[in-house]
Amino acid sequence: MHTRPKITALLILVIGIILGLLLSPTPAGQSVQQRLNSLSRDAWGEAVSSAARWNARIDARASLFIEYPELMGAIQKGGAFGGDFSVPIATQIFNPSEAGIADARRLGRIEQMAERTWIIYLPLVNVIVFETDEGIVLVDSGTAAEGPAILDLLRSVSSQPIHTIIYTHGHVDHAYGSWALVDDQPEVIAQADLMARFERYQSLPGNLGRYMGQNPEHIIASGDFFVPPTRTFRDELTISVGGEDFVLRARPGETDDQLYVWVPSRSAIATADYYQGFVPNLGNGKRVQRYPEEWAEALREMAAETPRLLLPAHGVAITESDVIKNNLNLLADALDYVIRYTKDALNAGVRQDLIPAGLSMPERFSSHPTLQEQYVSWRDISKMVIRRYTGWWDDIPSHWSPATFDRQAEEIIALAGGIDAVAARARTLATTDLVMATHLTDWAWFAQPNNASVQQLVIDVYRLRILDESANTQEILAYVEIMAQARQRQLESG
User: Fold this and answer.
1) What are the residues whose beta carbons fall under 8 Å from the beta carbon of 356, sequence distance 6 or more?
2) Residue 43 scores a pLDDT above 70
3) Closest by alpha carbon to 295, among 352, 262, 333?
4) Which structural domains are found in the chain, ordered by start?
5) Which of 60, 85, 189, 378 is positioned for an S-S bond with 487, CB 3.0–4.6 A?
6) Residue 18: burial class (beta carbons within 10 Å; 0-12, 13-18, 19+)
7) In terms of pLDDT, which residue wins out, 475 or 21?
């Protein structure tokens, strides 16, 4: 029998400290921090209760990470993108918290890659620095908390003013640190669709916050920090700074507003998120449409320039021309393989759920060290291709006008002989067929979410799914979310 965990006074104290760090930009978080040195242990409980009402999900997640510290290790396996992971930055990615700024300064480093050319490695992203006779050209500006660290690191290598900031796309880890970098009044350049992305974020804070594990209030407030572009373009733009050309080529990929930067005079290419040194974030089930075909074309276009220096937004730089060309073309080939396979299956009338399930990558792709399934999987990318070319129906007749999943789950539980039978079977399958065990766990959860044994079943089974070697970062985050929902109900009833 699995009993509901009891949160001790010490655990509450630790959660309070975590919440103080996580919530610092908000009134609730500031209040927690101001009282940090004066609260008694009993008062901590009151403070945590108030913060938990403001965002009970954070309380539940903190409890899970304390009880199961191995969960954070599983997330970090793919979530740090080559840098050092920072909880304050990852959990407050839209707004600059004091803890996040401190982490960025502590963990950020700058490395010279060529004459007057550097890469800044930060906890969640890289920033590329080109110094010219006229000033610094900066490719991306990190998360909101990373802006001050970028400025510090820049000043450690150059006294030149920041002349231009280029946003490779509007994702929050690439374009939100500029608030700390605009004292020199630089030109800020982006593809023309970037502002529509920002406006979309502002119009859907609840939805985006849920899928990104962020406080919706932070997303709304990010408008106070985000620096909009002063110049936009479509397709291609060449700018000249200090007598050097910087060629900006906009090609849909991870976003519709993504671009890369080619610097012919240095034979250097800032690849944004097109190249990351592992299977790219091209099949994210919690994000809007991504563009595999244009992504592959952009990779081949970059390879055709035969650059001698590849500067990625995630992962490590590459300095061997042959390796750069081979890796870019290999990733393009792999994407082409997934695209052709998926389209062929669609044309053959294969049921949609069977298409990614049947995908098997050739050994030249599956065994290559730069094509490891770390953040998403090849099957996830196949799903993104399907999504682009089909409607919302998945070929299963009852799914056209279905009963809600909750009602389906209730009927399945009844047919199985009750919740105890389903839970017992899920625990048995967890040792032999973990994927099927999670299906049974979902049925139990959506049928009876207030059942204490079901809540613990969710936590136990999805913990195993997270720790399974085949799990990638994006699915892990989805599993943490369902575990947090179960833990939240435990806390509310305990």
Assistant:
1) 342, 379, 380, 382, 383, 386
2) no
3) 333
4) 9-88 (no CATH), 100-287+298-321 (3.60.15.30), 403-493 (no CATH)
5) 60
6) buried
7) 475
